[in-house]
Amino acid sequence: MNGWMGKIRAVLMLSILSLVLAACGKENLTALDPKGYGADTSMDMIILTTLIMVVVFLVVIIVYSIVLVRFRRKKGQENYIPKQVEGNHTLEMVWTAIPIVLVLIMGVPAVMTVFDLADESEASDSINIEVTGNQYWWHFNYAGEEVVTSQDLYIPTGEKVYLNMQSSDVIHSFWVPSISGKMDVNPENVNTMYIEAYEEGVYWGKCAELCGPSHSLMDFKVIAVSPEEFDQWIADMQSVDPADEPQDAVAQEGKELFEANNCMGCHAIGSSPSAVGPNLTNFGDRTKIAGFLEPTEENLVDWIMDPESIKPGNKMTGKYPNLSEDEASSIAAYLMQLKPSEVTPESVGGIN
Ligand code: CUA
């Protein structure tokens, strides 16, 4: 009795646990709820292969159960030897043919999908973006547009956007689970892929290759906006003049400190393609600070004062003089007011 109770309890616990864990996922961070072309075709393959595996599993279990019950040794059959079927031609043919057919059913669409997702024939007429992976952030340079940004990648919905990807240091992997598959980002060569989002929204991106102590914090976002909003965003980004003076006095002081402390040695504001540190042109519109902190001035001050404690192994640590909290606050005020566009992550619903 006790043994059974224990088993029932274990099954109950497991069910509750899987229910709780199932709620852990974030919206727009799952390959199982596709919102873009690459994720969609991958989902079709997941469904196809899972269906085939389930059918094979059921057939094997059913045949096994029938044999177990029907062909048990019965009383009086102790010395009975059943008919021997070793080398049976028909059986050999059948159980060789079935797996081949199943592999073909999975393999042909898989190969077609691979070629489809690697098709670059429309790239020259489309938006092309240079993507550079860095420990631990992402650089995006819109080819021919003189628009550079980092961490939040803006794309128009319903269009294939071609990414030409390379790393400045170690191997990273670009992955936006709900709209595309993964692509490794290497230092030696350019890898290409395209992404397409069906609907407006903010999609979570992850680095999917262990790349150092802050690998798990190398998050980014894809901001999918309507094609009209995208054109607007590009125009707004192009019109930024890094020399523009902030209205607010504290922000003005922050701008001076930003220049005096050599922040601009690494961080460009405007269209400079330099990728030493993240481009900050639209920093005030970012979904996160340092890729994963809530975008508050307080978090930004903490980050500027001591980045190493927040993101170990980052390359900003030690590159500038120590700042007082007041100085860091002024710089934070300057950066937070860099909001060149009405088109923002908030305008497409924000992060879920
Ligand atoms: Cu970059 Cu992990």
Describe the 3D structure.
With about 350 residues, the chain is of the alpha+beta class. The radius of gyration is 28 Å and the shape is elongated. The model has no long low-confidence stretch (mean pLDDT about 90). The longest helix has about 35 residues. The protein has a domain of about 90 residues: Sandwich (Immunoglobulin-like), CATH 2.60.40.420. It is about 40% helix and about 15% strand. The relative contact order is 0.12. It has a five-stranded mixed β-sheet with strand order 3-2-1-5-8. A five-stranded mixed β-sheet has the order 4-10-9-6-7, with helices on one face. The protein binds dinuclear copper ion (CUA). Dinuclear copper ion binds next to loops.
Spell out the blueprint of helices and strands.
Elements: H1 2-22, H2 37-70, H3 89-117, E1 127-134, E2 137-142, E3 147-150, E4 152-156, E5 161-167, E6 172-175, E7 182-185, E8 191-195, E9 201-207, E10 220-225, H4 227-238, H5 249-260, H6 297-305, H7 307-310, H8 325-336
Parallel strand pairs: 1-5, 4-10
Antiparallel strand pairs: 1-2, 2-3, 5-8, 6-7, 6-9, 9-10
